[in-house]
Amino acid sequence: METIANNRCFEGEQLRLAHRAESLGCDMHFSLYLPPGARAGNVPLLYWLSGLTCTDENFVQKAGAQRYAAEHGVAIVAPDTSPRGDEVADDPEGAWDFGLGAGFYVNATEAPWSRHYRMYDYISEELPALLARHFPVDTERASIFGHSMGGHGALVIALRNPAHYQSVSAFAPIVAPTRCPWGEKALGHYLGPDREAWKNYDTCELIRAGALQLPMLVDQGEADNFLEEQLKTELLEATCADTGYEATIRRQPGYDHSYFFISSFIGSHIAFHARELEKSVSDD
Ligand SMILES: N[C@@H](CCC(=O)N[C@@H](CSC=O)C(=O)NCC(=O)O)C(=O)O
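The line above is the sequence of S-formylglutathione hydrolase; the predicted structure tokens follow.
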């Protein structure tokens, strides 16, 4: 593990690290914010999953999350969005919605993608173990959130591993990748033509299949250009209504898909997770 950058931020530390990722078979970067409280002992951990075209740096530079993480005493890890390196396969036409920067948080089963594209294992297994070994974070007190493709990743990973996360939230998530062009392209290539296999990576399908209840918050901008064709928030609203799954889904008038939207509500998401993480301590 190599520390590439360390900047003081709201009395805590904004770190950027490089390491060898065994699950992905390549070198990776991730960013980690440690609040000032981490100097005194282990702090709860939030995982942030970014969207298409992002690296680990978009969130830490644009969301304005550090102020709130420092206030609530939580660490935030922001991993990259796909395996990286010259040896990693990419979209043959260099499209931005598939391949590098677009791992969709799945374990690919189809060649050539299956060699490196194992972001589901990286986020849900390798990264927690690595962080617990090297940093003052309590990976038993963790929550997960993300944006767009990363909102999809956060929802799917939390719904499939409810014992590992106290809460989940998302900004403008792709809620039904089996039913939108971005998702159909990615899942078709990464997982092959069997659409049954795709359902393991679809939030609406997981809820319909009986996923356990977790505290869930979703914010969706109503002026988001991707809402109608790709994000389809109405499918999550219908799924929750049909199944009785309790989620707070807020439609925010005038907001688009950008980090201006995320930075407007990031404080509210971090406060939501901090409350749930605090409850988990009182429940012990
Ligand atoms: N390059 C694209 C726009 C891509 C885009 O909007 N990416 C979003 C995530 S979209 C879903 O996963 C993003 O977070 N971008 C990074 C940023 O810093 O804003 C285009 O040209 O339309």
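Note on the example: The CA atoms of residues 41 and 162 lie 25 Å apart. The longest strand covers residues 137-147.
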